[in-house]
């Protein structure tokens, strides 16, 4: 057993290997200069649903994961069509200076555990942003990231922290195409609009 740098827990070798694989997948698509850093709380439980695991067959992803992927890509102003492959979309996402990172780098199986991990690892994420990512703007996405928004504000990111009415961007109908259509403005559209007003 060893302590995982991504979640701070005692874990087995398989857990460490999965984290390293996720980091390698993400690193392939990391821009040299990050314009916009999107930060979600934690990656999905299913490895096949990981954002940077480009799939040639989208049916391998869950519906929620496909919708999440599309909304995140759309936030960079990338028009999605049926012919665009995920790898090409990720390459364009990278080309436009966008990168998705996670405050807790490993999947977390409960809200309580996620909240504890965010409290424990939040200061480490802020250091990582300052020392490694160095983006122009940060946009937290998902409700749990509300716990970290004040940390970024107090760390000098206030003017470059892109929020949705003072809160992280959230898609209340992710995984529900009908609900999302009725909601009117998707996560990707709201993010793209907020980011374009900062440029």
Kindly describe this structure.
The chain is mainly α and 199 residues long. It has a single domain (2-196), classed as Uracil-DNA Glycosylase, subunit E (3-Layer(aba) Sandwich), CATH 3.40.470. The chain contains seven helices and five strands. The strands form two sheets. Strands 4-3-5 form a three-stranded parallel β-sheet. The chain has a two-stranded antiparallel ribbon with strand order 1-2. A hairpin with a 6-residue loop joins strand 1 (2-3) and strand 2. The mean pLDDT is 89.
Name the descriptors:
199 residues; two-stranded antiparallel ribbon; 3-stranded parallel sheet; single chain; 44% helix; mainly alpha; Uracil-DNA Glycosylase, subunit E
Task: Write a compact overview of the structure shown.
The protein is mainly alpha-helical and 199 residues long. It has one domain (2-196): 3-Layer(aba) Sandwich (Uracil-DNA Glycosylase, subunit E).
What portion of residues belong to β-strands? 5-15%
- Strand tally: 5
Outline the biggest β-sheet: 3 strands, parallel
The number of domains = 1
- Mean residue pLDDT: 89
What would you say the CATH architecture is?
3-Layer(aba) Sandwich
Q: Termini, distance in Å?
A: 46 Å
Using the coordinates above, name the CATH class: Alpha Beta
What fraction, in percent, of the residue positions are helical? Answer: 40-55%
User: Count of helical segments?
Assistant: 7
């Amino acid at each position: 057993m060893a302590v995982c740098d991504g979640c701070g827990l005692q874990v087995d070798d398989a857990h460490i290997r999965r984290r390293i694989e996720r980091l390698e997948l993400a690193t392939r698509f990391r821009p040299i200069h990050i314009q916009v850093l999107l930060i979600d709380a934690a990656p999905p439980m299913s490895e096949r649903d990981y954002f940077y695991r480009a799939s040639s067959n989208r049916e391998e992803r869950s519906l929620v994961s496909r919708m999440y992927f599309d909304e995140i890509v759309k936030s960079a102003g990338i028009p999605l069509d049926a012919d665009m492959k995920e790898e090409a979309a990720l390459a364009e996402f990278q080309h436009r200076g966008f990168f998705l990172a996670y405050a807790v780098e490993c999947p977390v199986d409960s809200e309580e555990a996620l909240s504890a991990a965010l409290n424990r690892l939040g200061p480490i994420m802020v250091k990582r942003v300052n020392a490694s990512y160095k983006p122009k703007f940060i946009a937290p996405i998902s409700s749990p990231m509300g716990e970290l928004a004040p940390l970024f504000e107090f760390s000098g990111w206030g003017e470059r922290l892109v929020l949705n009415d003072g809160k992280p961007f959230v898609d209340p109908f992710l995984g529900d195409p009908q609900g999302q259509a009725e909601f009117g403005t998707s996560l990707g559209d709201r993010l793209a609009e907020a980011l374009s007003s900062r440029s």
